[in-house]
Task: structure prediction
Amino acid sequence: MDAMPKWADVVLIPLISLILAATISALVILAIGESPVEALNLMVKGALGSTYGWGYTLYYATNFIFTGLAVSVAFHSRMFNIGGEGQAMVGGLGVALICLYVPWPHWSLALVGGILAAAIFGAAWAAIPAFLQAKRGSHIVITTIMFNFIAAALLNYLLIGALKPKGSMEPATGKFPEATHLPSFQDMFSFGETALFRGAPANVSFFVAVVACFAVWALIWKTKLGYEIRAFGHSESAAKYAGISPTKIIMISMMISGGLAGMMAINNVQGEAERLVLNAVEGAGFIGIAVALMGRSHPFGVFLAALLFGFLYQGGAELALWTKIPREMIVVIQALVILFTGALDDMVRAPLERVFLALKRRKRKAA
Amino acid sequence: MTTAPAIELKGISKSFGPVQANKDISIRVMPGTIHGIIGENGAGKSTLMSILYGFYKADAGEIFISGQKTAIPDSQAAIAAGIGMVFQHFKLVENFTVLENVVLGAEDSGLLRPSLARARRELKALADEYELNVDPDAIIEDIGVGMQQRVEILKALYRRADILILDEPTGVLTPAEADHLFRILENLKREGKTIILITHKLREIIDATDTVSVMRRGEMTATVKTSETSPQKLAELMVGRKVSLQVEKSPAQVRDVILDVQNLNVTDEKGVHRVKDVSFNVRAGEILGIAGVSGNGQSELLEVLGGYEKGSGTITVNGQPIDLTGAKSDGRSRRERGIAHVPEDRQREGLIMDYHAWENVAFGYHHDPKYQNGMFMNNAAIKADTVEKMERFDVRPPDPRLAAKSFSGGNQQKIVLAREIERNPDLLLIGQPTRGVDIGAIEFIHQQIVALRDQGKAILLVSVELEEILALSDRIAVMFDGRMMGERRPQDTDEKELGMMMAGMNKGEAA
Amino acid sequence: MDLLTVLQVLDSTVRLATPLLLACLAGLFSERAGIFDIGLEGKMLAAAFLSAAVAYTSGSAWVGLGAGIFASLLLSGIHGLASITFRGNQLISGVAINFLAAGMTVVVAQSWFGQGGRTPQLSGAARFEPITLPFAEALREVPVLGPIYYELISGHTALVYIALLFVPLTWWILFRTRFGLRLRAVGENPAAVDTAGISVVWLRYMAVLICGVLCGIAGAYLATALQASFVKDMSAGRGFIALAALIFAKWRPWQALYSCLLFGFLQAFALRPDVIQTVVGFKVNGQLLDVLPYILTVIILAGFVGKAVPPRAGGEPYVKER
Result:
């Protein structure tokens, strides 16, 4: 018998955790001599007060949907993929190669090419730690972290070497050709004189991300593979009994995870920068962890949590611009969200369960 | 003047969330006696003893030790009050030595050496006094379960326990080891110790105890002198109605060989040789029971047959060899060959405890075309199938949307059984079919197994419960240390002979 | 290549191995008690920042060290709360702590010093100075042994010697004391400890706090001995490398020393492209050298050097069974 109704589990607990994280963040802001109320005001105005702000918020959210889904899929097979950052970097490499070296006739085809390249590169980068976990029992948390460092060094090496155009001083690739440029929200939603989302980076990738949410949902809850992934995540011994191969599930779920993280590159590399620069991922891979935990590893939850973090990210940028609160404040908030929704779950859950149990008893007595 | 009871519990109650495990329980245990507590799984025996040992705090009630009201907020207090406990699952540190385990928590000072030296001397004395010999420097994981149990008893005695609680102590022992254990308990009793024996085995109660208390559904239903009761009466008190302890069975109609195993060897991941050169067969229409103390290779045998452990040798099903090492050595291929498997541990293997009942009904058979709908799974079909199966196997509550963990042990087992039997397999592998299952469900499960046999299926039954093996099997094989010790017909043998074989002795050697 | 160059590389091996060793021993206490700690990295970082900040403000490296330990203990407390009291996921808690440290150090540094998330340079008593051991100067001219004593053994900061002392101390605590026996037991089978009447919670908190102290020293060493200020993300994955070294060492103190020296050697080697060129005969790419420790970590985890069996109860919160 469950002590709590389902809605409390999926809505109330994340909400309380979020409020706790927000409260502590507010205290930090207070402690460094700024006003939390004003900060919130600035954030709301900056992130949601204009189509420009929304354009940024949704751009960031797109990144986080991909990385959040990536972490979620891995969570379902009880793999903790902290390598989203590196997988997104390498996904960016895939996008850069395919945009620079393939002559695309139209952006739509370039988008498909970009998606494939990003997914394949990201999946390949996740495949090595996955293989080592499946076959050698190497702790996937540490190996994926190491692969983040290695990916960063690899990109560094390529961007000041082979991929840097001759004569350029900047560690970045050249501009991608015109035909690979993805339509931005400004291109799509401006009618005649009224330009909406002017200058904001949100682009068609957002819709790819939404499709990805549906695809992951169907994969996890409607297909045989999803059934096997979840079964393995719940109990490895039972999965073996049922004839589900642990190696296969670890490899596949991690590669889907890496592929999703890599796909973020169609947004930040192909859609926004239109070239590959150093540190293009900007921590989005790590934010995926917070997004997945808050979204309870469910695509719909991931979508909402990604929007929230998109807001925080854009709002945080505004704060850094107008106040003394540095951008790293977002990392603090992200840490607190992971802490409360992930590790301190029981702190919120246990008292709440007691409340619901007491309510149930009272109801039974009254009846 | 009458002596005060060694232990007296008054009005103990304890709930876990919505479940009430103990309801207003009172009991008196007299010093220098062996007091049995019997009850079905989930009757609340272990909870009650855990309260006495300070492992749980009671919601209400009082504890008196030798007439003194005593608060037992934690295990430390229980130990101080002279209570020692031997848990069903031993609480030993596997890679420590015997000595270190005995000393743990009862060290004399901050430095280890003097404590270990004293413990070594004292262990020797205790061993001589109570027939409790163990090598103090042996590593726990290298010694057998019987030895490990002695270490647990020594731990309690080293802490100067006067009251010793044993929770299901014979589950892992051979009959001979169990007899030795009861001799030790008699010795302890003679020295004036008080012993509480928790068990679900009626025979042990009758053989070993002076007084017996019966628990049912969290309540204490009776306390009687052992000499004034009978197994039948106790069983009725446990279950609350008349029960039949016998399995109704017609003679077997044996046909062709279904399963043939030749020279099977299994070595596990750690490199331990678990199954040694085992050969046997099972025919259609018969039940082959494999008896043995757990850990003698039966689990690995089932795992190889079930497809999730590698082995070498030859195994044929319906005359066709099955793959023991390659790509086809997995559970899915086995199921396609008509082998169904009810695993020994339903919570770790047979079920996904967090999955709904309906998801579990497809478990292992999720490739079945009738469960597919294009590229997706046909969840509606699985649910409909589940409703039918739940009805036929009388699963309660019959709600396919409940998680497996919400069902009682018996109903969980019925879900697994329904899934496997309804597949109409040629061969059913079934391990510990009634472990942790209440008596009502045991009757039902035994009937299902016999019914399947009567339909002409081959059944390989592995159980550590000798009574179950004797009641169900048409032939009995005994495993010891990975080897087959021989085969007997149930009508030609008895518990004593099988017990010898389970301890590795053949008739010839024993004589 | 001459003796002096070799000694120089070995000397920086010792200096670079010290934070790894402290973090590795920190992890050893925690994991031997059954608490996985991915958050070594974050604790070192937080300690590095606060020790540098306080050392700068107070002018004393030792006061800074105390502050660093305090910062690390604070995060240890959070980890204990999450993984012991509330039985949360230890990996997730560790990850949260790493981010918390990464964010908070910069936020606070920016608000405190306004130098873009770093602390001002430390000098004089605000920094740990090398200690010249007795007779080092006098013996310097003795052939072979003199330079070894002067260059390699003498001339480190106090924290290096403290770190080295912790190796035998850890061994002694673990294998010769009651506390050590109980600590190892609680990481293998907490139920055995619990039924023996010892508090699992207390033992595990002790382990986590010792881990905090050691990480605190490691972090302080980074900012006030190895370097002379705090800079953003200066722990640079050392916490994770220390974990890999711990696995390589199979959770044993002396082996931890050796595996940390190996990683330290790699880092020291990577700092000397000139030496590498003379050894291998051609110029090796700088990025490759930088990632060498990370690649080695992966290789070691892949178990090409033998299978490691971690403490059996590691990573699992302890729940009393019915």
Q: What stands out?
A: Residues 17 and 264 of chain C are 4 Å apart (CA to CA).
